[in-house]
């Protein structure tokens, strides 16, 4: 299996799911990047996000396990209760270490580890949410040469996460929802 040379990350919490679905619906049929998504979800509740989206989108939407190769044209969702990490050999690993900003999976963990491996071939989007998770990860993506984009607080259903990230990362780009969707529509 070919490994993805580029990775696009999406981090969101409360209020982000609808926009994430719109993003995924806008994707071209084929793209060369891998997409990795962290949504804060409670492991005590069973969700069928991956299964539902696979059917709706007619494409691979999976929850990676340890040593899952990061492949192009695949959408990966962090499993509830597990941090999702990118390893130097371009595979995922999962981990149950402590919560970050009360969250596991943590957006910061995925963004930090992906930035280390993919560097300038990493693009990260931080969306709606009610805590500070993702702000440090956005900074790390930028420090490693990647592109960091924060959803406009005016468009976010819950503006806490994007507002905090903008305050902590003044150099990051801020996109409204239509700009975010347009980015994914043009993904190659």
Automatic annotation (TrEMBL):
Pfam families linked: CheB_methylest
Protein EC: 3.1.1.61
Active site: 13, 40, 133
Enzyme class, broadest EC rank: hydrolase
GO CC terms in record: cytoplasm
GO molecular function list: phosphorelay response regulator activity; protein-glutamate methylesterase activity
Domain of life: Bacteria
Reaction catalyzed: [protein]-L-glutamate 5-O-methyl ester + H2O = L-glutamyl-[protein] + methanol + H(+)
Keyword Hydrolase: yes
GO biological process, one term: chemotaxis
Alphabetical UniProt keywords: Chemotaxis, Hydrolase
Keyword Hydrolase applies: yes
Domain CheB-type methylesterase: 1-180
InterPro entries listed in its UniProt record: CheB_C (IPR035909), Sig_transdc_resp-reg_Me-estase (IPR000673)
The protein, known as: protein-glutamate methylesterase
């Amino acid at each position: 299996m070919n490994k993805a040379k580029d990775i696009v990350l999406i981090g969101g919490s409360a209020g982000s799911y609808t926009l994430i679905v719109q993003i995924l619906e806008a994707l071209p049929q084929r793209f060369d990047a891998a997409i990795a998504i962290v949504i804060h979800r409670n492991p005590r509740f069973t969700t069928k996000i991956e299964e539902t989206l696979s059917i709706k989108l007619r494409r691979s939407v999976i929850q990676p396990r340890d040593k899952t190769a990061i492949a192009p044209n695949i959408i990966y969702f962090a499993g509830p209760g597990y941090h999702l990490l990118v390893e130097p050999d371009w595979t995922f690993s999962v981990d149950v270490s402590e919560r970050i900003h009360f969250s596991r999976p943590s957006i910061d963990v995925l963004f930090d580890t992906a930035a280390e491996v993919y560097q300038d071939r990493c693009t990260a989007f931080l969306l709606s949410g009610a805590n500070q998770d993702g702000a440090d990860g956005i900074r790390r993506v930028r420090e490693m040469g990647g592109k960091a984009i924060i959803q406009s607080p005016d468009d976010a259903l819950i503006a806490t996460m994007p507002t905090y990230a903008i305050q902590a990362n003044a150099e990051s780009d801020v996109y409204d929802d239509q700009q975010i969707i347009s980015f994914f529509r043009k993904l190659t």
